[in-house]
Specification:
It comes from Acetobacter lovaniensis. InterPro entries: Chromosome_partition/occlusion, ParB/Sulfiredoxin_sf, ParB_N. This is ParB family chromosome partitioning protein. One of its GO terms (cellular component) is chromosome. It holds the Pfam family ParB_N. The model is unreliable at about 1-10 and about 135-145 (pLDDT under 50). This protein is about 50% helix and about 10% strand. Helix 3 runs antiparallel to helix 4 (about 105-125). The protein is an alpha/beta fold and about 280 residues long. The protein has a 5-stranded mixed sheet. The chain contains 13 helices and 5 strands. The protein starts with 11 loop residues before the first strand and ends in a 13-residue tail after the last helix. The relative contact order is 0.07. Among the domains are: about 10-85, Conserved hypothetical protein from pyrococcus furiosus pfu- 392566-001, ParB domain, CATH 3.90.1530; about 95-175, no CATH class; about 235-265. The longest helix has 18 residues, at about 105-125.
């Protein structure tokens, strides 16, 4: 029977904030969220440690940018931290995974993080990428032991494989400049509308993004396209048109029952010529 070796417990240490480099984050810091955390820290202190890695004589932040900002807001000069041994790529993966697991992520944020995770994962494991770099027969023979990006992400983060593929497709199909323009708008929170945007050409995507910035009250991509193209608004069908449509779809038995209901005793006239 194979026994799995226990993982070593990670110790929490105290590190001066001045010794920690935050660096460029994949997700911007929300000052309002940091202020809420700071208020909690003033009453209860720092309850959750940040994660860092050692780089020379300093530390590089992996996870916990909002906690770092909150500590600064409260005037606390040191942070409880876990020092993780990780390469730069592995650290990026840890940062991405921490963000993906957050409940408040919008569909656009989740698409962005999953797409970035795919980039980092396939850089760490190029043999899993379609047409990836396989420099030896040995690597080629072992490639099946390394799960694909979708499989690995689904297992680690508990996400559905279809959701992962759809999210990555949203990110790759929407132009970079368009993603930046819509990041803080209503459409970032709607997966269905993001999919509708992704199906459009780059030029139309840019026009839609500009429309959203100017007229945020219109919250439907199809309606925005109609207005951009200047097409007349389709009138809703009248009651008579609805009845005629239903009559055309009904079978003979249903027509007989309906006619008997509205005009009992009259012969059925279903529009067909008598034999």
């Amino acid at each position: 029977m194979n026994m799995v070796a226990p993982q070593p417990l990670l110790s929490v240490v105290s590190i001066p904030l001045a010794d920690i480099d935050v660096g460029e984050r994949l997700r911007g810091i929300d000052d309002d969220a940091a202020a809420v955390i700071a208020a909690s820290m003033q009453e209860q202190g720092q309850r959750t440690p940040i994660e860092v890695r050692k780089v020379g004589k300093r530390y590089r932040l992996i996870a916990g940018a909002h906690r770092m900002r909150a500590l600064a807001l409260t005037g606390i000069e040191t942070a409880f931290a876990v020092v993780v041994k990780a390469t730069e790529l592995e650290a990026k993966l840890l940062e991405i995974d921490e963000n993906i697991c957050r409940r408040e992520l919008s569909p656009l944020d989740r698409a962005t993080f999953l797409a970035r995770r795919k980039e980092v994962y396939e850089e760490l494991h190029p043999e899993t990428k379609h047409g990836g770099d396989r420099k030896s027969d040995q690597v080629d023979n072992l490639v099946h032991l390394i799960p694909s990006f979708t499989e690995a992400t689904a297992q680690k983060l508990g996400l559905d494989a279809r959701t992962i593929r759809r999210s990555v497709a949203r990110y790759t199909s929407i132009m970079t400049d368009v993603r930046e323009k819509i990041a803080n708008t209503w459409i970032a929170a709607s997966g269905a509308q993001l999919d509708a945007l992704a199906r459009e050409t780059p030029d139309m995507q840019r026009q839609i993004a500009q429309f959203i910035a100017q007229w945020p009250a219109v919250k439907n991509v199809s309606e925005i396209i109609r207005q951009i193209k200047g097409k007349p608004k389709k009138s809703p069908p009248t009651m008579l048109e609805k009845l005629m449509d239903l009559w055309g779809k009904a079978d003979s038995a249903t027509r007989m029952r309906f006619q008997e209901y509205i005009a009992p005793g009259l012969p059925l006239d279903d529009g067909r010529e008598a034999a």
